[in-house]
C-alpha cells in the first residue's frame, strides 16, 4: 500500500468501522474481496477464509490505540 491513492481509498472504506464490524464474518469477507480488487491481487477461496479468520482472531478495536500499535508492529 505504498501507493497513496490506494491507501486513501482503503482508508476511506474503513472510515467509521467498529470492533463489532471487525468481528462480523460477512462484513470482513466483503472487505477482503473489495480490498483484493482494489489492490489487483488475486485471492483464492482458501486465502480469503484464512484472511477472514486472521482478522477476526485479532479482536481488533480500531478505537484502542494499543490495538493499532500492535497491528502496526505486526506488519512493519
Would you kindly provide a written description of the structure presented here, covering whatever features stand out?
This protein is mainly α. The protein has one domain. It has four helices and no strands. The chain has helices spanning 4-13, 25-38, 45-57, 65-74.
Topology:
Layout: H1 4-13, H2 25-38, H3 45-57, H4 65-74
Helix pairs in contact: 2-3
GO molecular function: protein serine/threonine kinase activity
Protein name: Serine/threonine protein kinase
InterPro entries: SpoVIF
Short summary:
With 76 residues, this protein is mainly α. Helices cover 62% and strands 0% of the residues.
Give short descriptive properties of this protein.
serine/threonine-protein kinase; Serine/threonine protein kinase; protein serine/threonine kinase activity; 4 helices; 76 residues; mainly alpha; kinase
Give the rounded overall mean pLDDT: 90
Order of helices and strands: HHHH
The overall strand count is: 0
The whole-angstrom Rg is 12 Å
**Fraction of residues in H or I helices:** 55-70%
Largest sheet: none
Alpha carbon gap, first and last residue: 12 Å
What fraction of residues sit in β-strands? under 5%
- Total domain count: 1
Structural class: mainly alpha
Which overall shape is indicated by the principal axes computed on the Cα atoms?
Answer: globular
Amino acid at each position: 500500500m505504498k501507493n497513496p491513492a490506494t491507501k486513501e481509498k482503503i482508508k476511506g472504506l474503513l472510515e467509521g468501522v467498529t470492533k463489532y464490524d471487525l468481528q462480523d464474518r460477512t462484513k470482513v469477507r466483503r472487505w477482503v474481496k473489495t480490498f483484493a480488487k482494489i489492490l489487483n491481487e488475486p485471492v483464492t477461496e482458501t486465502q480469503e477464509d484464512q484472511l477472514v479468520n486472521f482478522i477476526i482472531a485479532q479482536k481488533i478495536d480500531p478505537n484502542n490505540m494499543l490495538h493499532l500499535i500492535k497491528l502496526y508492529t505486526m506488519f512493519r
